[in-house]
Amino acid sequence: MEKRILGKTGLEVSLLGYGGFHLIEIPADEARELLNYYLDNGGNYIETAASYGDGESEKKIGSLVVNKREEIILASKTGIRDAAGAMAEIDRSLKNLQTDYLDIIFMHGVTKEEDLEQILSPGGAFEAAKKAKRMGKVKHIGITSHGQPDTLIEALKTDNFEVMMTHFNYFDRFNFPKLENELLTLIQEKNIGTICMKPLADGFLWRSVEKAFRYVFSLPIDMVVTGMNTMDMLKKDIQIVTEYNPMTDSEKESLFANAEELGNYICRQCECCAVSDEMGGDLKEVFKIEGYYDRQMYDGKPRNPADYALRDRLRHWFGNKEMAERLYRGLSLDAVDLLKKVDSFKPCPYGLPIKDKLEMVDYKLGDSIVLQ
């Protein structure tokens, strides 16, 4: 399996990392079988979190780690914001994982500005991480985030973190454009270890597994971490990572144009806006905020119950709804303004029904008296 260097940490990691969340769904003996198969086939990075099953994931991994510690780059996460609580959680993770050190401890789920302030303030969790590093309990300090990456970008500018993990995939590329347009540039400049999670967009891209993995493997990232809770799934993912060829730019453009999950509703934030040079930027901003709001998941189209339930579960998954509402209120031209100013819209190169989509944005974010 291909190995890459994890930024400034110098750690050599397998391109496919093993995420431990879904291990809570299966018995311990099956978890060990999967993890052993992963290691035997060239993988070397296993990651979990104290909160995954309240330590259950860590304990299942620990039963393997105790005998194979030197084969594994091991990471866990703490979501505690104060130093005392974070140190206690780090110690519990070490006990659960049956090891005396972690290669990486992540400050977990740092999405809001106040989260970052709490972590970095005196008495915050970062103090515990630094102390644990001095004591040899952890080797490197990282940070994870979800959704709009503004807070993550500010965190990485402090130079406190050696590794970062967030979601990259060809669906959220268009819902959170800063992920690839700004964040990837920053982490390359600072040589920060870059871990991709959610390559299947929380399972939304389940029909397009090979394309989804191939896309993220082709990004300037160091590793892709995913959860695998069946042998068939694990073998398939290992096959994909060992056989993939990087996507060309033309292949990416074809994917963006034809992916069924993007269809004729997701705004590609392209340079061919369908209104005019004068108002095209306003149109793109309206649709960008819709992406922040609910990942453009709700489009008013009838679907079978399973598809509807998945979309409904994932649309507010990252908790950016209030941020989107605030940003929308600050627009100089919102969806209703654009509908009033433009009699007809030029055809969108991706087939988006611009008028219908603006009406849907107003339904979601405007003053319409409709419960969401």
Describe, in short, the structure shown.
With 372 residues, the protein is α/β, with parallel strands linked by helices. The chain is built from 16 helices and ten strands.
Structure report:
The protein has 372 residues and is α/β, with parallel strands linked by helices. The protein has 16 helices and 10 strands. It folds into 2 domains: 3-254, TIM Barrel, CATH 3.20.20.100; 280-365, no CATH class. Strands 3-4-5-6-7-8-9-10 form an 8-stranded parallel barrel, surrounded by 6 helices. Strands 1-2 form a two-stranded antiparallel ribbon. α1 (28-40) crosses α2 and α6 (150-157) runs parallel beside α8 (178-190). The longest helix is centred in the N-terminal third of the chain and has 15 residues, at 83-97. The protein is globular and about 70 Å long. The relative contact order is 0.10.
Number of helices: 16
Q: How many DSSP E strands?
A: 10
Tell me the count of domains: 2
Name the shape in a single word.
globular
Mean pLDDT reading? 94
- Radius of gyration based on Cα positions: 22 Å
In the sheet with the most strands, the strands line up as 3-4-5-6-7-8-9-10
Low-pLDDT runs: none
Characteristic key phrases:
372 residues; alpha/beta; TIM Barrel; 2 domains; 8-stranded parallel β-barrel; two-stranded antiparallel ribbon; 16 helices; 45% helix
